[in-house]
Amino acid sequence: MARVFISYASEDRECVGHLHQWLVDEGHEMFLDRDLRDGISVGEQWERRLHEGLRWADAVVCVVTSAYLASTWCTAEVGIALSWGSRVLPMRAEPEVVHPLLTSIQHADLTVDPTVVRAALVEALRRTDAVGGWGWLDGRSPFPGLRPLDVKDHQVFFGRSGEVEQLTGLLRSSVERVEGAVLVVVGPSGCGKSSLVRAGLLHVMAGEPDWWTLAPMLPGADPVAGLVRELAFAAQQLGLDWTVADVRHRLDDGGLTGLADELLLVARARRLLVVVDQFEELLTQATPAVRARFAQLLRPALGGSVQVVATLRPEFFDQLLVDADLAGLPTHIHPLRPLRRDALRAVIEGPARRAGITVDEDLVARLVGDTDSGEALPLLAFTLAQLAEGIGRGGQLSGARYDELGGVRGALASQADAALAEASAAGGRGRAEVVAGLLRLVTVDEQGRPTRWRVPRDDVPERVIRELGAFVRRRLLITDTDQGIVVVGVAHEAFLSAWPPLAQAIEANASALRARRAVEQAATDWGTGSRPPARLWERGQLAAAVADTGARIQGGDLVTDRVELSPVARAFLRAGIRRDRIRRGRAVSVLSVLLVVTLLLAGYAVIQQRAAEHQRDVAVSRQVVGQALELRDTNPALAAQLSLAAYRLAPTPEARGSLISILANPYATRLTAHTSVVESVAFGPEGRILATAGDDDTARLWDVHDPHRPTPLSILTGHTNWVESVA
Description:
By secondary structure, the chain is α/β, with parallel strands linked by helices. The chain has 26 helices and 21 strands.
């Protein structure tokens, strides 16, 4: 809400009391010199306090009466407010009374219809608040450090007036107007894109009567939720009792176009401005499904009453064009170059002048020279914030303090080193462990580019929170609220590269940080529903994630050695690992059963084969036995051989009986050398030599020491006729 200074003559206190109560009821912060809580206290220097109040106020409400015209001090208040650039709202409390300094400003007439006047005043103050107000609190630093300037900082936004004019022309000029496309401001990290859109463009457009502006949103992991939140807040500003759930339901039913038209109808405006800062988070943090849903909401609305302005780092531009989920989103690119050296001087002197702080020319020259280029703007902003710390109105920035900080290039690193030492001492952990804790706030995309990652505070162990506090106090980290949840993040991505310990840790853990990003995105998809098992990772994908993050199950919980994961990401990996183990156990069981069955089948087959072979051998054996029996009388030797062969083939009873029968009886061995009838045979004295004689006119000698295998010894020839007898 706006800060309001009521300028009035003491004679009009009764009328002013009613006006004061109106504004308090609307939630505005008031300065009224008779109000003991918010006005001038006893013993204060009233003139100094009134000057402070006028500088503090976003708007000065002047209760114009004849007594007001007669008051020298009231005239002074009007003059101070006009010179300071405050929003002056004259309220005529007597007919036809006009202050000469306010003739060019439209008056609201309290004498006609106070209800109408009240509504007009409320709307004027709402507009004042929307553009960021016009007051400046004494003691407030005009330099934001690493965080971007916002709408409320528009008074200390310098150096980009030409760019603001170009962007506003693209939105409202009938000649240059961008319609049906997202106006994307593309510029390198640290060139001031966010400040340009927030403190420059948004400040101007919020004051346009035909425009209604939403607060800037960061896409994060759930850009749809961010859009819903800002739309719900806008509805509440307009007096609509829409909850976040109502807005989401309306988006699901009628899309963004219908909802925007409803808001604009109540706001009496024609265009709705949606600002998406750090558009690259759609690519680095949101899942494809969420990205697609966000694009589906924006695409049809761009052709109607909605204008979207986004900021984007140039290294993500090609990825934006080829991304399957965002490729169909029409864009108009507005390139933003780093600040020129002459503009850097305005960035230093302008804010200091607004806060009543002086900077000597030598220090300005050193700051500009050390910054060198607009790409180092975040380092300059951080250095200026350090220089201005504790310096109030009337103070001066110190060159000695600048030297102590280490200049533009050394200020951030020296403050980070000091924070690291403090964090290490506070947590009792080594510096490497503290830096590892900072990696919770960093992610790396598929191309290896580091970007900041906002983390819910409740997801961070208390020990690490205490350590991060040292960096928060030095404004290197910031805390914010996202959907009612306190989050902690890096103030600017310059911190990721400008401080060597963190930059080196990011490089060393790039694969783990990249894996964490993928796991977190998949876990978000898995966790938004009923955690379906089908969305769990498995096989190679799961194995790679486990290896890159150093994940393992310990005591039933999932722990990681390389990077920290959110609770839902740990649950996602734990469920995947358990599912994989169950599947592998089942696979082993199935394989074991299959192996047993295979062995049984193989054994059965062997048995069957052996049985078949045995049956075959038995049949052959019986056949051979039959042949042996047939030859027993005519060729007992062959019969014996056949019986033995049959027994060896299959020791059947038949084969065994045949063999015993043949071997139990002596059997003759044929001597086949004679060519005619053998007439006579005779053995030698020892029975080892056999003599045979025949009609072939020969006698023969045989060695028969082995009667089964007689061998011829010699042939006795020379006979002229048959040999009929040997002895």
